[in-house]
Amino acid sequence: MSEAATRTLQAPDRLASSAGPASAGQVSPPLTPPHKGEGDFAAAMPRKTVDEWGLAETRPDPPPPCGEGLGVGVNPYAVTLPTRAKLPPAFLVWLVIALALAWWLHSSSMPAEILTYWEDITYLAVQHIELVAWSGGLAILVGVPVGIVLSRPALRKVSEAALQIFNLGTTIPTLAILALSMSVLGIGTVPAIFGLWAATLLPIVRNTYTGLRAVPAHLVEAAHGMGMTPAQVLWRVELPNALFVIFGGIRTALAICVGSAPLVFLIGAGGLGELIFTGIALDELPMMLAGAIPTALIAVITDFVVGRLQFHLVPRGINPLR
After folding, report:
1. Where are the domains of the chain?
2. Contacts of 203 (CB under 8 A, 6+ apart)
């Protein structure tokens, strides 16, 4: 055998001897390179030793939250799906009313018969609005100051007893109040305004008193601590915080006033009650509706106007509607 062939046959023996001695059954691990990125991920995941309970353990840190660097809890892969717009319930109610009114106007001859009283409607509606304006305005001018006075600390012991006097205007039926005022003041506009004023006074007084009493005590104490006088505390702290409740009483009072105003026709004060009661007496449905429908419209418009004033005049931090 030549010398070259002898070196070829001895090469495996030299390779086996260079690998070192191996025990029986032991398999050498394959010489495979690590996957791409495996070393980087291991380097990015430091290992900490936790020995708080006497048990030494090693655990990896959790992976960083998704979207780290864009904000806490921000997911850059989140997709905002468009939501279907929902119609407000009030819009649906008005839509149903409008459709019913349109169907009634199209299928009935009643609207044409009602419009035959158009001149009476316009004239008596002006009278109706004047009666409501006078009686409601006087009730506001009297009720709010009385509620403020009754809410003062010096009169709080007798305030509930005093409120029972104003409660008579609501306890006694409105028609009886008009009859009593007619027996004292005669027939006409003056007893009508007095009767409506007495019937609408309680909600304003009660809500003004309740709203001022409900002002948080710490606000009043803070105002006194700042050196404010009692008048300044009333105008700058108590009234702004009670304004929403006061407006609620005014809205209730004006609704009562508009609904009770048709009764003043019975004591000779005019108004839309003339069409209502005359239509009932003559069994004329178009005439009765000619007075009832405008009365309802005046009540709705009045409440809407006062509600808008309440929305815009009451400060944003106190008004729950804003």
Report:
1. 128-313
2. 143, 170, 249, 250, 252, 253, 256
